[in-house]
């Protein structure tokens, strides 16, 4: 075979190797470029996935600090200084309320004789601790003990309607106004030596508890100038009280205002006799019959033995 023929046979083989080499270099270049693009992208994705999910201002530590700094809601209406000797005496201490076992004749939130046969309104267990002052029927001038009526926001109680009912109790001949012995007039602003506040159980417990009285979500109290009326009792009465709801409301006011006037607790004077207004009738009548008023129709005081 001639030298020329050999050159022709080897030339294509060498050219094929060079072409394969160029293709291999181009493939490797594409791989290096792809790696250069994908690796930083993967790093960015991992970093994003690991970052906490909040925006500016949503730092959990800042939110926790803000929550810790918020204090309790305060009453919107401050009680005025006492304007009567009985009110200025301070807390109406009720040791029998504080020491009364919870298992004894505890009232329920269900139907009660004093509430009638109709259905009860929804009674919230707690509220904001702020109050609306009754204005209807109020006068900034008048004779006797100045008092104010308030209803906690969210209770559903119309303070003006409640005030009208309370005014009737305070002026009733069988009440503490008996024979002109005490007189009262309602105010909406200015000094008030007596403040009747209708409030949820939680708010009543809180305000009464400031003076060491345990109302355990069920009963009323008198603390200083404040008569705290438990919303549950105002709306449902008591299972121990056999009478209309209006009469039980009269008992609430007569009992707590009696404390404000300086009267202590009394007990049943005898089987079949009217229970004193100053008796804690919600804990049982002890043989007496339910009664809402301090006096009878013959101007006789309906009292009983003192409870120490």
Written overview of the protein:
The model is unreliable at 39-118 (pLDDT under 50). Helix 5 (159-171) crosses helix 8 (245-260). The chain contains 8 helices and 6 strands, in the order H-H-H-H-E-E-H-E-E-H-E-E-H-H. By secondary structure, it is α/β, with parallel strands linked by helices. The chain has a domain at 85-262: Collagenase (Catalytic Domain) (3-Layer(aba) Sandwich). A hairpin with a 2-residue loop joins strand 5 (221-223) and strand 6 (226-230). The chain is elongated. The longest helix has 48 residues, at 3-50. Strands 1, 2, 3, 4, 5 and 6 form a 6-stranded mixed sheet that branches.
Note the topology.
Blueprint: H1 3-50, H2 60-69, H3 85-88, H4 95-99, E1 131-133, E2 145-152, H5 159-171, E3 184-186, E4 194-199, H6 201-209, E5 221-223, E6 226-230, H7 231-236, H8 245-260
Parallel strand pairs: 2-3, 2-4, 4-6
Antiparallel strand pairs: 1-2, 5-6
How many beta strands in the DSSP annotation? Answer: 6
The chain-level mean pLDDT equals 75
Q: Summarize the main sheet.
A: 6 strands, mixed
- The secondary structure category is alpha/beta
Number of discrete helical segments: 8
Low-confidence stretches: 39-118
Helix content: 25-40%
